[in-house]
Every structure is written in C-alpha cells, then in structure tokens.
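> forwarded from #structure-qc
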C-alpha cells in the first residue's frame, strides 16, 4: 500500500485492498453523502467525549502508545498492568472505516472535548513528546494531581527534601521540558493543579515548596506563572472541585496549620499574578496593542518555545519515537518514519513503538546487566556456590526467571535490598505445616550465610557498593546494623520454631503413648471381662446339667 509522505492513511490509494469500500462509503453512505463535515465533527465530539478525566499512561516504558485509564487516579505500574481497560469510543470509531479514521486524524476532536489528568511528571513529559503536534494543539484542559507520590509536587526545582540532589535536578529538568512542550498546546485554555484532601496523606507534603513558588518571581519559568494556571481543591475522591480561595473557607476543609499556611500563600500568589496580568492587559490596550493575533504569552514562555528547547525536550522524553516519528498502523511504513537518532543498525521496533535493545545478560565484569524486579529464591549450588532465582524486569524475558550466581549480582543498594527483602518475605509467610516450613527454611542459605559468603557484612556493604565512597559512614553502619538485626532474627526464629516443633512432637508422642496405654488397659479389661463371662457360662452349664 502506498502512502503519502505525511499521512498514516491515504484513502485515495486506488491499489489498496479496501479501495472499493472506501469509494462506496463516499458515494453511498448517508454519513458522508448527506451530512456536512461540520455536522459530522459535532457527532464525533458527542461520541468521543468522556465524563471522567482521561489519565494517559504508557503501555510500556519508552512506548509512544498509551492506555487511557479513567478509573484509578494514580495507579502503580503493577496495578495498571493488571487493569482490564476498555478501549475508548474514539479507538473503536477510528477502526470503523478508513474514511472515518482519516477525518479523526485530520480533526482530532477527542483531544478537544476531554480533559487530561496526570499524576507524574514523567507521564506528562512522555505524552507531550509522543503525541502529534496537531493533536496537542487541540487540547483544552490539563490537570496536575500532586501527592500520588511524595516526590511529585509539580513544583519545578522546589522538590521534596527527601530526594537526593540528582533526583532534584532530574525533576527540575523534566518540568522545564514540560513547560517548553506546552508551547505546542496552542489552544490550551486551562492548566490547573488539583489538590486532593485525604485523611491518609498529609496535604502539606503534596504541596511542598509551592508557597516559595507563589511568593517568588512572576517572570520565572513555572506553572504558577502561566496566565491559564489555576488551583482547585477536592474534599472527596473525584468529588466537586472548588477554587482554592473558596476551598479555604469551606466547612469540609480538614488540614493542619502548615498546609493552611502553604494553601493561603498559593492563593495570595495567584491573586497577585492575576492582578499583574490584568494590569499588563490594560497597559497593552492603552498602547494600542490589543490585537487578538498578538502573542500574549509571558516572555519566559516565549523564550522556552524555541525549536531548540522543544527539540531538546523531545530528545529527553522517555519515548523512542516522538511526534511525527510515531509508528504508523501500517508497520511496513516504519522504515520511512524512524528518526535518524533512533535508526541504528540491528535495532528492531516492536508493535508498541519501542526500540528493542539487545543487552547481554552479563557485562564485561561478569555482573548481571539485565533489569530485574526481585530475588524470588536462594539456594545452595552443587559446587557450594550461592545461587539466586532472579525475576527479570522490562523488557520481558523468556523465561521470566533464571538461577544466577550470587557473585554475578551487582553489589549495589538494589542487590542488597532485594536479598534482604527475600528473607523478610520468608519470615512473614503464613505457616500451615511447621515441619515443612522449617525444612524449607533450613534448606536455603541464611542471612548470616550470605554475609559470610560475601566475606562479612563489612565487605558486603562496603567495597564496590554505593555505601563505600559515595555515602557517609553512618549510612553504611546503619545498613550493617539492619543486616545484623535480621541475621539474629532469622536465627532466633528458626530456634523458636524448632523448639515449638519439638514440643509438638513430644506432645504428639505423649498423646500417642497415653492413647496406647489406654488401649492396653481397655484390652486387659476386655480380656478379664471375657474370662469372667466364660466362667459364668461354665457354672451355668454345670447347674443345668445337674
């Protein structure tokens, strides 16, 4: 099938297998023959509109395809992967015929009539980079939900104090990229921060450092310095939204003093910015600069809207194919649509828009190079080595698990925590058969065995790990204390359960002995009764004979 250079679907292709159906639709279908395009677009808008907010999430890391979750506000990756998400009407509608697909491609009304919500900066960054510019230009409403994770406050460089400096810099860079890409949302009418009051989470942590942004410069790159920015508050999950100023006076407000202080600072900052925007608008009107076509964006936003910064934001996005380089539905067009930066020899692109990168299982040092999720099991190898059962992470592997030598596991924080988590899980397991549980526990290496096998805790949590030169000695000492605690707890647990098993066995043996003694006594009594009965019968026989 031939395709035009800038279209995914070319319905004018006479060589297409379904070209005759396309002609019939155009000539005979009432939808295309009698209804004008403007009315059809109105029908499409009613069909694809959703009452709930649309929450896009990548179907796989670095994919340019998204699942449109409308249920849980901020699902984890595990929750999201297990969800049964029904396809949206716009997806089903676009698959009806090629003519409708072309119109929905040319007029992406789905993005105009729905509001989009994001919990994480990475999700919004990937979405803005992956979606076609034509579709981005149609978006009217974007909502930011802070607090689904304490790191996601959406406060630019004012990141939560729990984070490491590298994480702070990355978060600030991501939000800078988002601000640059928002310039492509030409018709964006509302960008808002929606704060959720929740009895299980501290609202003050969800809006950490927003008071500093509100009290800061009006001319610095930040969400709060956009003219279309607003802040709302919900008192129940997906409940009614109130503007922040109104929410602060609402009877349902239940926050502590620190959260009230930050919310009040945000409200004052928004009011000050609105006054500044209104004053600038009056000055422009007085100077005769009230042309509707004039670019009225703040100067910092214009500076961030350059092609250089937008391209840098796209390059930094967690997607392999962005914007115009998105994968076409016709997979054989891929060779013509892959960008030069991702077209590398030997790479394969899968159906979800991800470059398949073949990574050797082990690096040059013999350590595992594949991503892994957790350590599922630990055992002694035939040669006396310790072996770990690894559950591989993304990308998926076949098989999903394999046994690897302990020495191949990178001695970093993830490796240490994965092994420790395995022992914690084993100690938390529900015991249904105590003897079988103890046999299983004795058959695997203990935490002390792991430490000794690694040359001692000081060696295991020291040299060649992030605790060696990159963190203070107190961190290493703390980790050693944690491992020492679990080593002792493991041994104490086995000793205690061993005593319980011995007591149960002794109790069972005593019960069996008592039962045997009772049975012997009963047998003796029965034998004596039988003898007595026999004697009685003999006497009765003699009497009857006389």
């Amino acid at each position: 099938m031939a395709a035009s250079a800038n279209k995914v679907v070319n319905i004018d292709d006479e060589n297409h297998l379904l070209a005759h159906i396309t002609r019939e639709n155009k000539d005979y279908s009432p939808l295309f023959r009698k209804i004008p395009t403007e009315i059809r677009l109105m029908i499409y808008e009613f069909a694809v509109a959703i009452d709930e907010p649309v929450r896009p999430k990548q179907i796989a890391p670095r994919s340019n395809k998204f699942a449109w979750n409308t249920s849980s506000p901020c699902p984890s990756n595990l929750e999201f992967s297990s969800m049964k998400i029904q396809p949206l009407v716009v997806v089903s509608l676009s698959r009806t015929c090629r003519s409708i697909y072309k119109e929905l491609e040319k007029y992406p009304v789905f993005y105009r009539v729905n509001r989009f919500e994001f919990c994480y900066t990475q999700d919004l960054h990937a979405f803005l980079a992956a979606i076609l510019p034509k579709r981005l230009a149609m978006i009217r409403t974007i909502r930011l939900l802070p607090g689904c994770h304490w790191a996601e406050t959406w406060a630019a460089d004012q990141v939560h104090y729990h984070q490491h400096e590298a994480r702070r810099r990355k978060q600030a860079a991501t939000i800078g990229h988002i601000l640059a890409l928002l310039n492509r949302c030409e018709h964006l009418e509302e960008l808002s921060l929606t704060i959720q009051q929740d009895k299980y989470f501290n609202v003050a942590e969800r809006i950490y450092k927003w008071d500093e942004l509100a009290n800061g410069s009006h001319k610095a790159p930040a969400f709060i310095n956009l003219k279309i920015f607003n802040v709302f508050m919900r008192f129940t999950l997906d409940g009614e939204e109130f503007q922040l100023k109104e929410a602060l006076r609402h009877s349902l407000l239940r926050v502590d003093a620190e959260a009230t202080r930050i919310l009040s600072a945000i409200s004052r900052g928004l009011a000050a910015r609105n006054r500044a925007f209104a004053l600038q608008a009056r000055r422009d009107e007085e100077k005769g600069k009230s042309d509707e076509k004039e670019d009225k964006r703040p100067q910092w936003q214009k500076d961030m809207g350059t092609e250089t910064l937008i391209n840098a934001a796209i390059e930094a996005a967690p997607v392999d194919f962005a914007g115009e380089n998105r994968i076409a539905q016709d997979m054989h067009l891929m060779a013509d649509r892959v960008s030069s930066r991702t077209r590398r020899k030997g790479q394969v692109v899968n159906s979800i828009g991800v470059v398949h990168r073949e990574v050797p299982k082990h690096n040059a040092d013999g350590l595992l190079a594949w991503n892994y999720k957790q350590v599922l099991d630990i055992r002694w190898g035939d040669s006396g080595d310790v072996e770990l059962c690894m559950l591989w992470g993304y990308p998926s592997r076949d098989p999903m698990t394999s046994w690897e030598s302990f020495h191949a596991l990178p001695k970093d924080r993830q490796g240490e925590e994965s092994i420790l988590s395995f022992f914690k899980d084993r100690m938390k397991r529900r015991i249904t058969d105590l003897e079988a549980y103890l046999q299983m526990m004795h058959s695997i290496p203990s935490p002390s065995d792991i430490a000794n096998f690694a040359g001692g805790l000081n060696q295991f949590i020291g040299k060649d790990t992030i605790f060696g030169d990159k963190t203070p000695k107190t961190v290493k000492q703390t980790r050693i204390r944690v491992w020492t605690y679990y080593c002792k707890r493991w041994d104490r647990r086995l000793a205690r359960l061993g005593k319980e098993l011995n007591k149960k066995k002794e109790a069972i043996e005593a019960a069996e002995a008592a039962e045997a003694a009772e049975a012997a006594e009963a047998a003796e009594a029965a034998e004596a009764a039988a003898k007595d009965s026999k004697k009685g019968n003999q006497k009765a026989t003699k009497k009857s004979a006389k």
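QC bot note: The CA atoms of residues 87 and 258 lie 42 Å apart. Residues 51-87+114-337 form one domain.
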